[in-house]
Amino acid sequence: MTIIETKSLSYTYPGGTKPSIRDVSLTIEKGEFVILTGPSGCGKTTLCRCFNGLIPHFYAGQLEGELAVAGLKVSEHPISEMAQRVGLVFQNPENQLFALSVEKDVAFGLENLGKPRDEIRKRVDWALQTTGIEELRERAPHELSGGQQQRVAIACVLAMQPDIMVFDEPTSFLDPLGAQKIFEVINELNKKLGITVILVEHRLDLASKYADHVVIMENGKILLNGKPKEIFNSETARLIGVGIPKATRLWQMLQENGVKLDGVPTSSDEATQLLREVLKT
Amino acid sequence: MIEIKDVHFTYPTGVEALKGVSLSIRNGEFVAVMGQNGAGKTTLVKQFNGLLKPTKGDVLVDGVNTRDISVAQLARKVGFVFQNPDHQLFSETVEEEVAFALKNFGFKQDTIERRITWALNLLNLTEYRKTSPFMLSGGERKRVALASVLAWNPKVVILDEPTIGQDHRQKETLRQFIVQLNAQGKTVVIVTHDVEFVAECNPRVVLMTQGQIVADGEAKRILTNPNIALKASIVSPQITQIFQGLTDLGLPTDVIDVSEAKKILIEYLEEERGKR
């Protein structure tokens, strides 16, 4: 089932001289784990802002083309309605958290929607449990570590029970182990709860193993769109300077030297396995 | 160039961020300070330019104790580029931003002009000379911050998390730039989480955890040691992970670079073929 569909979508920010996204046609299926990547300034974040209606409702500007999310025409539904379908988690959790306790931060969105008290309590409990931060409930968000804060930010969005969650470089402020834990939380939301995940990310070495759909943008346009193995192995991806996983890069370099390997690895585990077969025979 | 002797540092809030750190950085070295969030990395490098003074112990920069010299005097020798460029930039145009410190250091007007042109050209910012820094992208603002520091030609350049928010190509440019600076004899210290970036640069790595240095040495040695890595929340580079999964075939475990990995594998395959 298709959950996001854009047809020839173009958008120019107010006062902008050229469109930030141009002629974007993209279909995302329900339950997919999508990685959206491309050089800085390619339009990734702008496209994500369209998914939950921040564009055009908040940013104004010039939007052309069609966009349907969870069966709703985004231009005809207010942000408050779209926010219940599409949750956005930002790069820096400090920009998102503000309450005096974790619990209050997580409840905030639901209170704004005027949900009954019992339901708020239930959903907050569930969101804290799912992201593994129940013990932080009473703590002040600004006293937590970066990794903990990012989990709180995820819980806030999760409590709205969205169909789609968009993560805009959620781990760039975290150390590698902290980043890996966040990717695992995101992966669980996707695999166990069936939430459609769109992850904007430059660090593909850590994230690529979870994805089943990769979209690469450049200059506001979609350049490549398909399965991770095909995309990471394409010459185009390498030439525009996308940081393809080192496992894939090693495999390409071996191919160039005449070493035949089956399949295309996107993670170190896959590469180890493929290499093992070749080295042993 | 920088000598740190048993330095302790406690923030006014009571947080003990450095617990007895000793470290010596020679002139012209390239050092990456790594470790988990909250390990004390930024606190450590802020001692280098006197932004923070040790609670106990001594920091000597170019032979002078940081207690005996003002931050302004130290800044002439040690340039600091912050993690978040917005903590650093404030002028109306890129040009004024770069000129600011030069004016403060009392350079002559024609020298200032020359230095601005040089620094903007170096960082590919010439076209933005009259632009407001706040109109630029995050990556570009980081370059402006770097240009404003390099303009006064400090002996030591400290970069706090230079790769955050930079795409792959920008990181490659940054890497070449750092290598170039280092080749010109500048001492370069970076604070970073970016394991793959460090794997490509291969600097000396100083690994911190909980306010202490737990390892110090070649990147190749530190990043491939599973015990050390785990202690400091480091995930080994992907190439290292691949090789560590193949140790039973007699392959080395200390590989971090993709080109080196290719070379080893090709040689291994040729040798195996030769045996048959």
State the end-to-end CA separation of chain A. Answer: 43 Å
Apparent shape of chain B: globular
Q: Please report the first level of CATH classification, the CATH class of the largest domain in chain A.
A: Alpha Beta
Total discrete domains of chain A: 2
The whole-number mean of residue pLDDT values of chain A reads: 89
Strand neighbour order, sheet with most strands of chain A: 6-7-8-3-9-10
CATH structural architecture of the largest domain in chain B: 3-Layer(aba) Sandwich
Overall pLDDT of chain B, averaged? Answer: 88
Strand arrangement in the largest pleated sheet of chain B: 6-7-8-3-9-10
- What share of the residues of chain A lie within helices? 25-40%
Main sheet record of chain B: 6 strands, mixed
Helix/sheet category of chain A: alpha/beta
Protein chain pair with the most extensive contact, residues per chain: A-B, 45 and 41 residues
End-to-end span of chain B in angstroms? 55 Å
CATH class of the largest domain in chain B: Alpha Beta
Low-confidence stretches of chain B: none
Task: Give a topology summary.
The complex is a heterodimer of chains A (281) and B (276).
Chain A: E1 2-12, E2 21-29, E3 33-37, H1 44-51, H2 54-58, E4 62-69, E5 72-73, H3 79-82, E6 86-89, H4 102-112, H5 117-130, H6 146-158, E7 164-168, H7 176-193, E8 196-200, H8 204-207, E9 213-218, E10 221-226, H9 228-232, H10 235-239, H11 246-256, H12 268-280
Parallel strand pairs in A: 3-8, 3-9, 6-7, 7-8
Antiparallel strand pairs in A: 1-2, 1-4, 4-5, 9-10
Helix pairs in contact in A: 4-5, 4-6, 5-6, 6-7
Chain B: E1 2-10, E2 16-25, E3 30-35, H1 41-48, E4 56-61, E5 64-65, H2 71-75, E6 78-81, H3 94-104, H4 109-122, H5 138-150, E7 156-160, H6 168-183, E8 187-191, H7 195-201, E9 204-209, E10 212-218, H8 219-222, H9 226-231, H10 238-244, H11 258-275
Parallel strand pairs in B: 3-8, 3-9, 6-7, 7-8
Antiparallel strand pairs in B: 1-2, 1-4, 4-5, 9-10
Helix pairs in contact in B: 3-4, 3-5, 4-5
